[in-house]
Amino acid sequence: MNLNELGSFLRARREALRPAEVGLTDQGVRRTPGLRREEVAMLAGMSVVRYGRLERGSGAELTGETVAELGGGRPSNISWGWFTDPRVAAMVDPRHHDAISQACISQLRTAAGWAGDHHPGTRLIADLTRASAQFARLWATTPMTPFKPIRVTVNHPVAGPLDISIEMVLSPSARHRVVMMRPEPGTATWQHLKELRSRIER
Length: 202
Fold this sequence. Notes:
Elements: H1 3-16, H2 37-44, H3 48-56, H4 64-68, H5 78-84, H6 86-90, H7 97-114, H8 120-131, H9 133-141, E1 150-156, E2 160-171, E3 176-182, H10 188-201
Antiparallel strand pairs: 1-2, 2-3
Helix pairs in contact: 1-3, 2-3, 5-7, 8-9
């Protein structure tokens, strides 16, 4: 699922839900059907600004074309790219490789707990086991642990070194997970990404 598809999915789900279905009180007249963006952000435990960016499908400045061009029919899938395409690992400071590998395993194990035999997560795990000896070894030996946010340094070809926080939002009811990579506001990385985005949007 790419960013535009994700945005469309989130918007459709938000408009289809009613406040009572998620334990909210329906107060006042609603200009549009379904939940407000503020309500979804509150339920997901994130800021309204961050949720709005997800629904608009924005945020592709960090990985650029590197992840988008990955083969195997899984464009923009971070776990697939991390274990099968050396270009993705080359973007990250080697000191953080183990942390990212462990994070990928952790979030895939969480997804596997929801998945049936026909869920895309189940197929992804099977394909990764065949495609990557490293993934197969880690999958067989890494214990079940909750995903924890991590900070890594990404060596971007245009913007240079970027300090990035990686977080994950889970939706067990919809059987989806969203992995978010963001800079800390006010840091040099934040400014570098703003400049990178302005170049892309020209």
